[in-house]
């Protein structure tokens, strides 16, 4: 048995595929997203989990519309239930997703500190 970043595998001879994204790119995407919120309080924030949205997109689109103050009309609901799809532009929810884009936003000092914190959080010590 062995461990990668706190994940235990069952057998040493098993094949393991471990996919991750550079935490600095994830951080920059999160920063861009949260900076757009600019809310005055928690009542103006609505959280979604990606996995739940993927599982039931119509439920979450309805919840989002209600949160924004533009709920679907009965006619719109009827159209959706009869097979109509809700069309949402991709850019509405996703940024560019460019690998390594963090270099355009973080200074070398910020990267050094980010890497230090990431190592401690991932492995418990600096490696």
Automatic annotation (TrEMBL):
The entry lists its GO molecular-function terms as: sulfotransferase activity
Identify the residues that the record assigns to the Sulfotransferase domain, covering every copy: 42-119
Name the source's superkingdom. Eukaryota
* Any Pfam family: Sulfotransfer_1
Keyword annotations: Transferase
Q: Which InterPro entries match?
A: P-loop_NTPase, Sulfotransferase_dom
Please give the start and end residues of each transmembrane region.
none
Give the EC number(s) under which this enzyme is classified: 2.8.2.-
Q: Which family does it belong to?
A: Belongs to the sulfotransferase 1 family.
PANTHER family reported for this sequence: SULFOTRANSFERASE SULT
What name appears for this protein in its UniProt entry?
Sulfotransferase
- Per the UniProt record, the source organism is Nelumbo nucifera
């Amino acid at each position: 048995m062995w461990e990668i970043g706190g994940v235990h595998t069952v057998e040493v001879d098993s094949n393991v595929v471990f996919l991750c994204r550079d935490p600095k790119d994830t951080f920059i995407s999160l920063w861009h997203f949260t900076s757009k919120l600019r809310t005055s309080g928690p009542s103006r924030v609505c959280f979604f989990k990606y996995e739940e949205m993927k599982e039931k997109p119509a439920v979450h689109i309805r919840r989002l519309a209600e949160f924004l103050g533009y709920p679907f009309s009965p006619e719109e609901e009827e159209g959706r239930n009869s097979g109509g799809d809700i069309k949402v532009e991709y850019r509405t929810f996703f940024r560019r997703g460019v690998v390594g884009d963090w270099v355009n936003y973080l200074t070398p000092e910020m990267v050094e500190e980010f890497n230090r914190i990431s190592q401690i959080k991932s492995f418990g010590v600096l490696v």
